[in-house]
Design goal:
single chain, 542 residues, alpha+beta, OB fold (Dihydrolipoamide Acetyltransferase, E2P), Dihydrolipoamide Transferase, 4 domains, six-stranded mixed beta sheet, four-stranded antiparallel beta sheet
Length: 542
């Protein structure tokens, strides 16, 4: 008997999936475990394997098509089997309809005008993918292929600046790049037309027009539609270096997205830059240290939009304006939503860190990596969350999720804003493991190499400004977490111990709580446990 396969939920936030590629076609015999399709979710492109044997009788959408979770993805059965009832019912046989009725409806409703081109079924159309869970639009940091170039599956098409990082976008098919939806520096909304890859001779204008008529117009920040050909002045290309300069890189140039972006801004031709990374990959440091053969060669090629640093002249008003980055836009939007939607309340507590200071000194004498006070706070927080699961919760609108796992987000400051990589299952890790992981995340964040899997899935967040000399502050909750802990610096202040005024090491922490899911007494009990763990750090080691 034929069986319907529905689109599975491949991530916790997935609501729909795009078929990046079918590996089987209708009529093929499929065995359990065979690769069926590549499905692009909101977090990654994943391989979907068949979990049964049979003949593939129907696919719910062609390559490039989109399906909601639990929509009809495919039908398996025996060759020649009647599947009309399953197709009509979207995978539910109970809603069967005669095939004749189903096929007659479109004919009756067919418009008298020429049929509209169905771009959703075209493998050649590439839409802007959602490269992070919060991404709504992307900026083309740079194209690695030009119109007319031959593209192979797996080759880098473009560098896309999202709200969290600049990421390399690889092609998932072979062909020729026939169209680019935006120039370098321009933005494209998620699911808008990014490019067209196909065979020469394809009617590109018809595809672009079909996308536009389907509501695919790109808009500027103020909501006005952009004209497809308005950017006749293309972004200034790097001026070629002096003929005497030595070409270091022939063919494809391997460079980090950040290095490419800075090189474009500075008008540096990457062919002449020697890379110091793996396999000669050019890094930001290589660009910063690069000196052109002729210092004045590229002055005229500097982008007009780049704000230049100028000295203020006495008595003259002046300023610089720079475009808001995708990351900064998302930070503004998400934190505004959090602050004005979630009813915040704040709990502050002073913690005696004398024992923690002494313990850290002894720990670092034997630890394989240097353990910081932040690592100790993170470990103590994880253990306290284990005892207070209501604080380790997520507000989901119509329900509260009490998480059994403890994934702690660690706020890391980067040039464009703030990223929050996640230490997963922090309660099960040693101080050395936590220290190593946080250091790796911090470096990846600064190098813009964090991936969506690194920053998604936190259940609690810590923001530490103690290293900047901040004694105390409040932080805005990182949704959907219910709480965030703001950690100040350790200050030497007079304290009373055993009736005597003595110098002591005191650290202040302030927890911001979402009153919809956490009450004052619950948050206070959590802070008491955190305080006891940091004031007696040996309790963290048992």
């Amino acid at each position: 008997m034929a069986e319907a396969i529905l689109m599975p939920r491949l991530s916790d936030t997935m609501t729909e999936g795009v078929i990046a590629a079918w590996h089987k076609k209708v009529g093929d015999t499929v065995k359990k475990g065979d690769l069926l399709a590549d499905v692009e979710t909101d977090k990654a492109t994943m391989e979907l394997e068949s979990y049964q044997d049979g003949v593939l009788l129907h696919i719910g959408t062609p390559t490039g098509g989109k399906l909601q979770v639990n929509d009809l993805l495919a039908i398996f059965g025996k060759a020649g089997e009647d599947i009309s009832a399953l197709i009509a019912g979207g995978g539910k046989a109970a809603e069967a309809q005669p095939v004749a009725e189903k096929t007659a409806e479109p004919a009756a409703a067919a418009p008298s005008s020429a049929p509209t081109l169905d771009v959703s079924s075209m493998d050649e159309v590439v839409l802007m993918p959602r490269l992070s869970d919060t991404m709504t639009e992307g900026v083309i940091a740079g194209w690695q292929k030009n119109v007319g170039d031959t593209v192979k599956k797996g080759e880098v098409l473009a560098d896309i600046e999202t709200d969290k990082a600049t990421m390399e976008l690889e092609s998932y098919k072979d062909g020729v790049l026939l169209y680019q939806g935006a120039k370098a520096g321009e933005k494209i909304l998620v699911n808008d037309l990014l490019c067209i890859i196909g065979k020469p001779g394809l009617d590109v204008d018809a595809i672009v027009e079909a996308v536009k008529s389907g509501g695919g117009k790109k808009t500027t920040d103020d909501g006005h539609p952009t004209m497809e050909k308005k950017t006749e002045a293309t972004p200034t290309a790097p001026a070629p270096s002096a003929p005497a300069a030595e070409v270091v890189n022939d063919g494809r140039i391997f460079a980090s997205p950040l290095a490419k972006k800075i090189a474009t801004e500075k008008g540096i031709d990457l062919r002449y830059v020697k890379g110091s990374g793996d396999n000669g990959r050019i890094t930001k440091t290589d660009i910063d240290n690069y000196t052109p053969a002729v210092a004045t060669t590229n002055v005229a090629a500097a982008p007009v939009s780049k704000a230049t640093s100028t000295s203020a002249v006495a008595g003259v008003e002046s300023f610089d304006e720079v475009p808001v980055s995708q990351m900064r836009k998302t930070i503004a939007r998400r934190l505004s939503e959090s602050l004005f939607t979630a009813p915040h309340f704040y709990l502050t507590m002073s913690i005696d860190m004398d024992a923690a200071v002494a313990a850290r000194t002894k720990i670092n004498e034997v630890a394989p990596v240097k353990v910081s006070f932040n690592d100790m706070v993170l470990k103590a927080t994880a253990l306290a969350l284990k005892q207070h699961p209501k604080v380790n919760s997520s507000w989901l609108g119509d329900k509260i999720r009490y998480n059994h796992h403890i994934n702690i987000g660690v706020a890391v400051a980067v040039e464009d804003g703030l990223l929050v990589p996640v230490v997963r299952f922090a309660d099960t890790k040693s101080l050395s493991q936590i220290g190593s992981e946080v250091k790796v995340f911090a470096q990846k964040a600064k190098d813009k190499k964090l991936q969506p899997s690194d920053w998604e899935g936190s259940t609690f967040t810590i923001s530490n400004l103690g290293m900047f000399g901040i004694d105390q502050f409040t932080a805005i909750i990182n949704p959907p977490d219910s709480c965030i802990l703001a950690v100040g610096g350790i200050s030497q202040v007079p304290v009373v111990k055993n009736g005597q005024v003595v110098p002591g090491n005191v650290m202040k922490v302030t927890m911001s709580c979402d009153h919809r899911s956490v009450d004052g007494a619950t948050g206070s009990a959590f802070l008491q446990t955190l305080k006891s763990l940091l004031e007696e750090p040996l309790r963290m080691l048992v």
